[in-house]
Amino acid sequence: MDKGKIVAYTFFMFSLLSGLLLGAISVIFVLQNVFSVTVTFFAWTITAPLAVIISASILMGILAALVVTLPESISNSFTISRLQKENKKLKDEKLVKVVEVVEVESRSEDKVI
27 and 2: one domain? Predict the structure, then answer.
């Protein structure tokens, strides 16, 4: 097995085990926090189990973080794409110059001989 497959398999197993552990912890959390609480936010009043309120708060925080970081992430992907194209263009130009140098050197060697 090559190194890339080993790394991918290790990452997959780590992700799987982490997900299972997080799921188990979530189930324990929900089972221990089933009593209802009332949350008041301005004019809204919500009554739900504590686990639901906390989970909804976490999900809203994740959503807010995604909304904040998404524009920069999209901008970075465009920048990476542009730089990769520019890098390929420069490599192609370098290859052309190297070929030109080799041709010039071979002509100069023919003249010397």
Answer: yes
